[in-house]
Design goal:
mainly alpha, DNA-binding, 181 residues, 6 helices, homodimer
DNA sequence: AATATATGAATGAACG
DNA sequence: CGTTCATTCATATATT
């Protein structure tokens, strides 16, 4: 029930005059906002459901009052989004070439070299290079294992709701977002 | 599947790495968050009112009875999954705090203590704690080595003194965003 | 617009 | 411990 306070309090506390936000703080903000988005979404759905039921029961309380959707939409477009690195065409080619030439993951030194070279073709960091090789290798492997038979499907979840009974650890203290109406 | 996520697009495309926010941008953030806070407040009030009214009107309608979960499916599918340990927010905070206080990897005894404490905030094992410290340290170090260049950052979220809220993803088995009326 | 896929990034666990 | 793997999360792009 005090989820709101918890969610927006911190934001103000760091917003000291003359100070600036770090990327981490910004990321945190983004997440906090995301939480609000989720909560609002649920509440709206909830409200609709209730209204629907209510409508068939009694015509009362057609509480229009608040234009939720417009409110939500009004704020949707300036916030959040930390863009992720996207390799340029040139960079991608080079990376792809290196991947098939060199075997294994480049070590730190090699990463530095590669990054240096690639930085001539666009913004890039050593972490980007590192991640790229990690992902490239992992996904290549996955494709092979899984690939033999059928189509070329994505790596993603495959949505088959196989009822696994494992589903471990329930959050014991996740009372933060629960509304005990 | 990330339908609503699309609603709150760019938080701040100006937030390039190494850059900081202007007061103006920060003010915008605050305002936008404020909108969410307001909307949530209103919705909750409405909900309470409706529930109260419903309750006195007919003895029916006790309990959820409406699958609000349906709204959850729009954001994170798959109630299954999660085979690996995921620290709860509380646990994470504690771990983070311990990490900066204590020096070096906790010994066996310390691990046991920590595990015991953390187990009050969710499922956890000594191995989890051990791994967490290992990883935390390793990644902190590696970040220093790699982080030098350009866009350099990612891997490891440096902590901010903001009690961060759970990420915007809905997990059936972790943070509960469900409204159990 | 809604959904699906591709892919950069994060992270728990395992390996040497 | 440092490094690597496996899986998942999040978002940009493509498709319908």
């Amino acid at each position: 029930s005090h989820a709101f306070a918890a969610a927006h309090q911190p934001v103000c506390s760091i917003a000291l005059p003359g100070q600036v936000m770090t990327d981490e703080q910004l990321e945190t903000l983004r997440r906090q906002i995301s939480v609000y988005a989720t909560i609002c979404q649920q509440l709206v759905e909830m409200h609709k459901a209730i209204m629907a039921q209510q409508g068939s029961a009694s015509g009362l309380w057609l509480g229009p009052s608040i234009p939720f959707d417009s409110s939500l939409h009004s704020m949707g477009h300036k916030l959040t989004s930390r863009q992720r690195w996207t390799p340029s065409q040139t960079q991608l080619h080079i990376l792809e070439r290196l991947f098939e030439q060199e075997s294994g993951t480049p070590n730190k030194q090699r990463i530095k070299e590669i990054t240096l070279e690639l930085s001539q073709h666009g913004q890039i960091s050593e972490t980007n290079v590192y991640n790229w090789f990690q992902n490239r290798r992992a996904r290549t492997k996955r494709k092979q294992q899984l690939g033999g038979a059928n189509n070329g499907d994505s790596e993603l979840d495959t949505d088959v709701d196989i009822p696994e009974e494992k589903k471990g650890k329930i959050e014991a203290d996740s009372t933060s977002y629960t509304f005990d109406a």
